[in-house]
Specification:
heterodimer; A: 182 residues; Rna Polymerase Sigma Factor, Chain: A; Arc Repressor Mutant, subunit A; 2 domains; disordered C terminus; B: alpha+beta; Protein Transport Mog1p, Chain A; four-stranded mixed β-sheet
């Protein structure tokens, strides 16, 4: 990240912030979408995160740490959007599922289906750890630093999350109870 | 067969690499438009917050703030019902330019409103099942759902109305198999017959129905479901609207009604669902909304 842009934006330079937002917007949005699994919620979370970044940028003491700091604000925005989604969530609802329709039963396609379901069952806390570590390739200590939680908690959440995703993947290999009874 | 940790990690990483990355310009534009109205926090703010205030000082400041706010309220809002019952405010929506819809003398395009918008009573139009224009009227107490063709009641436990085209049914709602579904023919009768074979669910025999002058069939979910513990998680019923969306299956004691219409060759599906615990009257409102539907 261009620290000069960060410093100028810290001093209230809207043009500099616009350049900063263009530079980080896609990445923040990609992370938000992977955590929330919903385009609309991800757009809202990214929008809120960018506004929070602008508002709180003066609180960032080390401009070189902009990336990690921005991810922390983004994850907070994802929490808020996740809460908002739950408030709307009825017992019956429609879920976005943006995979294309194709015939056949390739295992990779089934894996995606299983991961989608398994991931949606995880809390935002657990999803954030998975995305920061496995999508952004952040080491666990950086994930801890970004989220402001102990490294042990990160390891625990990652372990729990991956166990859940493994169970979802393995579920495909098992017959459903109904079919097993037939 | 169980997979190794490395396999799981590889699959998860590959899956995470898929999907959208680009932030739409309109989101960026919205942010930049709001900058002039979003002051940056002053840099001494956090230091000020860390000042140690003793309890008497904190109490004094709080009391002073209350007095100032009360004076301002009396000065500027002499007619307000201070101390009276709270006035109802619409739910906030972070992305919504307006959290309530505008009154609509002519039908307003439902798709133009952000998710969660509290709908002003009036007429709205669905445009997502092309080429149909589906107009309907909502009473108070309803909001736009998370998608452009879903209406929710405003309570935490929500009644729901959804209008859609159905692409395909899942072979087994409780099964983990995404693309394994039996082919469903194009007619109203085809879909009604397929619903009657969905594992884990029982639907009533189809009965004739007419909505907005178009004939079709109605089926009602008959509780209970027999999913039991669903290894795959939430049971899914079908993929809708060109397959980009799924609708979870009903379950438990839910009231779930499916109307399948033939609208000049387009198969249109309307579902009305009412989970246990919704306020009395919502089911009647659902029916009234459906009765108000007009289709062009």
């Amino acid at each position: 990240m261009d620290t000069d842009l960060v410093v100028r934006a810290q001093n209230g330079d809207e043009q500099a912030f616009a350049s900063l937002a263009v530079a980080v917007g896609d990445r923040l949005h990609a992370v938000a979408h992977r955590i929330l699994r919903d385009i609309d919620l991800a757009e809202d979370a990214t929008q809120q995160a960018l506004l929070s970044i602008w508002r709180d940028l003066t609180q960032l003491r080390d401009p070189a740490r902009f990336d990690a700091w921005s991810y922390r604000l983004l994850v907070r925005a994802c929490y808020a959007e996740g809460q908002r989604a739950r408030r709307w969530e009825p017992n019956l609802r429609l879920l976005p599922a943006d995979e294309p329709i194709t015939a056949g039963g390739f295992s990779s396609v089934v894996d995606r289906d299983q991961l989608e379901r398994g991931f949606r069952r995880l809390s935002i806390d657990h999803r954030a750890v998975v995305v920061l570590h496995h999508y952004l390739d952040l080491p666990l200590d950086e994930v801890a630093d970004t989220l402001g939680i102990p490294a042990g908690t990160v390891r625990s959440r990652l372990h729990h999350a991956m166990r859940g995703l493994r169970a979802a993947l393995d579920a495909d290999a098992r017959p459903t109870a109904r079919k097993a009874a037939q | 067969m169980s997979r190794s940790d490395r396999d799981v990690t590889r699959v998860v990483r590959s899956w995470l690499d898929e999907g959208v990355t680009a932030l739409p310009d309109r989101v960026l534009d919205t942010v930049l438009d709001q900058l002039p109205a979003t002051p940056q926090r002053r840099s001494w703010w956090s230091a000020w917050r860390r000042l140690v205030m003793n309890n008497p000082l904190r109490t004094g400041l709080a009391a002073a703030a209350v007095v100032v706010i009360a004076i301002i309220a009396i000065q500027f809002f002499p007619g307000s019902n201070v101390g009276g019952p709270p006035t109802e405010t619409p739910p906030a929506s972070t992305s919504a330019p307006n959290a309530t819809s505008s009154p609509s003398p002519t039908p307003a395009n439902f798709g133009d409103y952000p998710s969660g918008t509290a709908l002003t009573p009036g007429s709205y139009v669905f445009t997502h099942v092309e080429p149909l224009l589906i107009t309907f009227t909502v009473p108070s107490g309803w909001e736009k759902g998370g998608l452009d063709w879903v209406l929710f009641s405003v309570e935490n436990i929500k009644a729901q109305l959804a209008v859609m085209s159905v692409a395909s049914l899942y072979e087994d709602p409780c099964g983990p198999r995404l693309y394994r579904y039996p082919p469903v023919g194009p007619t109203v009768e085809d879909l009604a017959a397929a619903l009657g074979t969905v594992p884990g669910l029982t639907f009533s025999a189809p009965t004739d129905v007419n909505v907005a002058g178009f004939d079709g069939l109605q089926l009602d979910y008959v509780p209970p479901d027999t999913f039991g513990t669903c290894a795959a998680g939430e049971p899914w019923l079908w993929r809708v609207n060109q397959g980009t969306t799924v609708q979870p299956a009903p379950g438990g004691d839910d009231v779930f009604t499916v109307r399948i219409l033939d609208v000049n060759g387009t198969r249109l599906v309307i579902t009305a669902s009412a989970p246990a615990g919704i306020p009395a009257g919502r089911v009647a409102e659902l029916e009234a909304i459906i009765d108000s539907i007009q289709i062009e």
